[in-house]
Amino acid sequence: MDVSDDGIPGPVAEPAATPDDTRFDYDLVVIGSGPGGQKAAIAAAKLGRRVAVVERKHMMGGVSVNTGTIPSKTLREAVLYLTGMAQREMYGASYRVKSDITIEDLFARTQHVIGREVEVVRAQLLRNHVDLHSGAAAFVDPHTVEVTDDDGRRTRFSGRFVVIATGSRPHRPDTVQFDERTVVDSDGVLALDRVPGSMVVVGAGIIGIEYASMFAALGTRVTIVDKRPTMLEMCDPEVVESLKFHLRDLSVSFRLGEEVAGVDTGPHGTVTRLASGKKIAADTVMYSAGRQGQTADLNLAAAGLSADRRGRIEVDGDYRTAVPHVFAVGDVIGFPALAATSMDQGRLAAYRAFDEPARELAAVQPIGIYTIPEISYCGRTEDELTRDSVPYEVGVARYRELARGQIVGDSYGMLKLLVHVDTRELLGVHIFGTSATDLVHIGQAIMACGGTIDYLVDTVLNYPTLSEAYKVAALDATNKIRAVARFGEV
Ligand SMILES: Cc1cc2nc3c(=O)[nH]c(=O)nc-3n(C[C@H](O)[C@H](O)[C@H](O)COP(=O)(O)OP(=O)(O)OC[C@H]3O[C@@H](n4cnc5c(N)ncnc54)[C@H](O)[C@@H]3O)c2cc1C
Ligand SMILES: NC(=O)c1ccc[n+]([C@@H]2O[C@H](COP(=O)([O-])OP(=O)(O)OC[C@H]3O[C@@H](n4cnc5c(N)ncnc54)[C@H](O)[C@@H]3O)[C@@H](O)[C@H]2O)c1
């Protein structure tokens, strides 16, 4: 077995690359090494194709590894551990692992994990014989890219196919001066020099709420501002209410339905001006008001392509752009813009390019929101089922009634199943609390197989586990359905 420098075992010997079309330097050129680019490159390499990945210096692994998913989730883990937050039900409200948590304590863990992940990505690509080119790529013609490295050196090469996986960056309104110290975006928040005493988070999307809950847990007084009247509107409203309750308990204030007019900075911090005339003073302002596709520097016109106002590229169901040999995957094609989906889009784009048979992605996809506590769901919401006049029943399990919930000290967690009254099919799973983002996959698997809650009723699950919540909720739904069916029986 091949073992790379970092000790990670490699696959059994790869098939030798077979030139596909010698008119081109590579069979596939991938621009960007985030989740979408990585998987496109590896999938093509596994088919024996000659593959190149272009990535900017210090960005191996993409936004996901360097400034997005991985650092934010690692920071959350550091916050949970050092604040002792998850253990307070057991050891009291004042329980802490470290009383004076510094930004260095937090970022040490983040840097460690980023470093490891970068090496894992690099090793995987290299052991699959993918050529790595450092620099920024731009199209010269539909098959050729020019890569400019940090020293200004330029290299050109061509690909029979090209995958654009250049991801996204934070959207920055022109009216706001970002000084990378007091006014930052979700990249800049990872370079703060201290834990702020107070913070305004502009944008109550997933990024904004995740960081708001982390800083609130650290003791920062957080105000969340969003022009929409509700937050996380794709989630179950009961779950969002539970989250809001928890955040309020951590002194978070909400200014929903309010637009930011501007931010003033001075020697003592910042003042955020709202369109309604209100002003909010804070040490730091973090903008998380959407993201922009990274296409401005690609010279798309040379490939015969263009992007929309938010920098996104349009693709068909096979991730093919308007130019048939150019594919695009990941954040650069917009919704759902998740690391999870980007990976599979990359893999499928490579398969489509090289005519490798592959099925489409399953329709039921999970969403995981790493707030404190975390949220996860898949399938439909109560509002959607009501709108579509689908008769459903709700089965609920509360963590406080599960032995494992008591053991881990989670009394607030909840799992909710939405079940079709007639067919008993599982239509939706909504979870709030410890391990929600892992637990959701049980429901997802049942739904993907068209399963009913009878599977859960008839199956023995390990005890004591949080998975037991599925059984409890399935029995609850069964009892309610039976009660309605028996009503009126003599
Ligand atoms: C704070 C935050 C938290 C997130 N948390 C989660 C989460 O918990 N779960 C989840 O599933 N998703 C999460 N996401 C979303 C996830 O990170 C993205 O969906 C994912 O990274 C998109 O992958 P991608 O393949 O499009 O490429 P990206 O990861 O965006 O990487 C694109 C790469 O392309 C490179 N590039 C761009 N232009 C060029 C060029 N011209 N030449 C060469 N290289 C170029 C960039 O340098 C970059 O490294 C989060 C995002 C953020 C910002
Ligand atoms: N756990 C996860 O899966 C995860 C975590 C983080 C990010 N992501 C991905 O990243 C994407 C981007 O997240 P995001 O939170 O930046 O974007 P978003 O578009 O979801 O949210 C932006 C919010 O900012 C608000 N806003 C914009 N301008 C404003 C203004 N001037 N004043 C007040 N409010 C304003 C908008 O109303 C919106 O609610 C997400 O859609 C998601 O796909 C996923």
From TrEMBL:
Pfam families: Pyr_redox_2, Pyr_redox_dim
GO CC terms: cytosol
UniProt domain Pyridine nucleotide-disulphide oxidoreductase dimerisation: residue ranges: 366-473
Cellular localisation: Cytoplasm
Residues covered by the FAD/NAD(P)-binding domain: 26-346
Superkingdom per UniProt: Bacteria
Cofactor needs: FAD
Principal location: cytoplasm
GO molecular function: dihydrolipoyl dehydrogenase (NADH) activity; flavin adenine dinucleotide binding; NAD(P)+ transhydrogenase (Si-specific) activity
Single GO biological process annotation from the record: 2-oxoglutarate metabolic process
Region (Disordered): 1-20
Cofactor note: Binds 1 FAD per subunit.
The protein's enzyme class: oxidoreductase
Residues that coordinate or bind NAD(+): 203-210, 290
Annotated binding of FAD, by residue: 73, 166-168, 331
Record keywords, A-Z: Cytoplasm, FAD, Flavoprotein, NAD, NADP, Nucleotide-binding, Oxidoreductase
Enzyme Commission code(s) on record: 1.6.1.1
Family: Belongs to the class-I pyridine nucleotide-disulfide oxidoreductase family.
Biological function: Conversion of NADPH, generated by peripheral catabolic pathways, to NADH, which can enter the respiratory chain for energy generation.
Stated name of the protein: NAD(P)(+) transhydrogenase (Si-specific)
Annotated organism of origin: Cellulomonas biazotea
Source taxonomy: Bacteria, Bacillati, Actinomycetota, Actinomycetes, Micrococcales
Gene transcribed to yield this protein: udhA
